[in-house]
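Give me structure tokens for this 282-residue protein.
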Amino acid sequence: MDENKPKSDPNANGEQPQRGFNPRVLFFLLMMAVVLLMFANAAAPPPKTYNRFKDALKEGRIESIEIQQQVAICTYKKELQPNGEPAKFSVQLPPSPESVDKLDKELAEYPDLQVTYLPPDTTMSTLMLIAILLPIGMLLFFWISYRRSRDQFMGGGFLSGFGKTGAKRYDQEEAPITFKDVAGQKAAKQDLQEIVEFLKEPTKFQKLGGRIPKGVLLNGPPGTGKTLLARAVAGEAGVPFYSVNGSEFIQMFVGVGASRVRDLFQKAKETAPAIIFIDEID
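Here you go.
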């Protein structure tokens, strides 16, 4: 009967599965920023010293000057580039206001000289900022991805959850499961009813010299209701139910599994009486 039932589609509600960020996008952006930065540097005129700029200015070899912040782009009158365009060079101007005022007065002595003041250009600053921040962003992204994958492998946060158990706690106040919710399994229910009575009235059996059982082994193939039966015992007794996978206690790091076992039983002791269900013990 179950084989004829249609399988549920996780995307049947129309929602698209979420995809993680592709690191190739960061690599592509980084390469694009580097290429743009290389082209910008290649297109910039060759730099010259401030003294050579003053010499060329006195010799009358400069036709025009474009000043942008602390950089001046000078165009020669007669000297040409290999492509036939006028040759240019750049010069770093003095940062002090006195030097700038002195330069303005000197440029005013050349009436044929074309001087243009341009607004600040943030293109180069932006490209340099991108070229610096993108590698940092990539390193941060890969570091966070590595931390998440490592934390998932260890079953929790690296610092706060390194030795903590990942057991789930089910309180009976929310939606208790009882033996009525378990179909069949009459013999198993009768055997577990004694455990329920032990949990409900432990002093009654202790007065008679009885010893409360420390655990029960539920054996059977997958899907036969072992977990549901264990939760039903907790529901009948009205005690908290802790469910944990046995593979969480097997770790490549020495002491992690034992630490999680201690943490699990410590939590169960704090809410005793309680039931700890360890699934898939090989």
